Amino acid sequence: MNLLGQPTITIDGGLELEEMEFGAWFVAANDGSTANTYVGKLADERQDVASLVEGLVVVFKIPATLSSTGASTFRLKASDGTVIGTATIKWRGRDIRRNELVAGRYYEFRYNAADTVWQLTGEGLVEPADALPGAYAYGTDSSSSATAWALTFDPAPTSLAQGLIVRCVAPVANTGALTLQVKDGAGNNVGGAVAVQKVDSGGIMAALAGGEIRAGVPIELMYVTTSGGRWLLLTEPGPVIGSGSVGLVVKNNGGAPNTVMDISADELVVRNSRGDGRVLTSVSVSANIATSGANGLDTGAAANDTWYYLWVIWNAGTTAALLSTSSTSPTMPAGYTHKALVGAVRRNGSSAFVSTLIVGRECYQAPAVIFTAKAAVGGATYEALGGADLTAFQAAVPPIAKGATGVLGSSDGAATGGCAMAVAADASGLGETMVNIPANGYSFNGSYAAGPFRVPLKTAQQVYWMNYDTEVQARLVVNGWWF
């Protein structure tokens, strides 16, 4: 008894529980239970009743290894082993299902004399899985691959029905289309292997692309019966906000500078066609124009006098480099889903990459003379590049460039007097950089007097320039660009 004089019952090796009102009796141990046929024996003769009566409540611990596998019964015995009564266990009017009575857990049964059943009340105890709002949580891996998952749920659903929700930790990153096979605690298949799909940007259910589910990330899936049944991916890893890189460096390979470009970055964001981002770390890849596919040229044969765009690509497990003539839609090797543009390199007429160094979004490259010993059309008037000058500029600055850098000056040391030159983004002088040219300067790299410029590009691969007089002396050199 307790301090108030109320009777107590000892169960499970010494735990004392108060005898509840309305005839609640506590079972100390099972007495010959088998799967789905549970037998409990009252611990003390003071608890014995003659028969199963309305409202009788019994708490019973499911024996080890005897989780339910289907409809179940409970037989109550008196302390001397006499059978008091046997009845089916019901949950909300239906039979018990597989793994709804879990080995090692306590459950509360209340006898309903009108229906002659034990009602599983679950008051204060673990309730069956479908007492939760439609979700069967965390499936464990039962030998999954990147294209076919097999997950064991305990407790498990008995069938795949519209609106069924399951939660799990992704056992393996997917590399493309994916199926899920649900299994119960006994290893039995629940339904068949069903495709896992997403809702694409157009609101249509579609197959997954590789890398859209990462290993070790909690996800939630809902079963829908349309088109023969599919799992709809409800949750996935949170989106990567923003874009860009940390510590990005692109340069000619030291051993094969004419054909290979090296790419490295501390961090780099790559995105798939939906815009979902992944952050890659410790990136170190190389692109060889003599190779096809990943770490090479995306398609076709290598061409001279061509801009090649440098990409980092990813397929949920492998990071690679890619060269392409496209700055927006490279031909992706099979299985690769995510990409990031990291720069461009010019392949010249001698089948060699121009010496290039890209740091972040700033590119430095071997100087390219756009024109030299050139006279302006008219003094102090901006003019656009044209003819051979424009062709030379387009070979020095790619279409993706947002601006250009270089040197502007005079190629004639004998020019009379000084002058001034300027370069700008348009004819109005937008973003103008001006260089004052003294008379009779000293020659260096083809210029007698010069100064650096940095100019935005309002029109892709086009710049405007002027000389404040019309002497044959202007010289324009490009040595870099940014994007």
Plain-language structure description:
The protein is mainly beta. It has four domains: 8-128, no CATH class; 135-235, no CATH class; 245-359, Tail fiber receptor-binding protein (Trefoil); 362-482, Jelly Rolls, CATH 2.60.120. 2% of the residues lie in helices and 45% in strands. It is built from one helix and 35 strands. It has one helix at residues 387-396; strands at residues 8-11, 15-18, 24-30, 37-42, 57-61, 73-77, 83-91, 94-95, 106-112, 117-120, 135-141, 148-152, 165-169, 178-183, 189-199, 205-207, 218-224, 230-235, 245-246, 249-252, 260-271, 277-288, 296-297, 306-314, 319-324, 338-347, 356-359, 362-374, 383-384, 403-410, 419-424, 433-437, 449-456, 464-467, 474-482. Strands 19, 20, 21, 22, 27, 28, 30, 33 and 35 form a nine-stranded antiparallel β-sheet that branches. Strand 21 and strand 22 form a beta hairpin. The protein is rod-shaped and about 125 Å long. The termini are far apart. The model is unreliable at 1-24 and 123-134 (pLDDT under 50).
List keywords for this structure.
483 residues; Tail fiber receptor-binding protein; 4 domains; seven-stranded mixed β-barrel; 1 helix; disordered N terminus
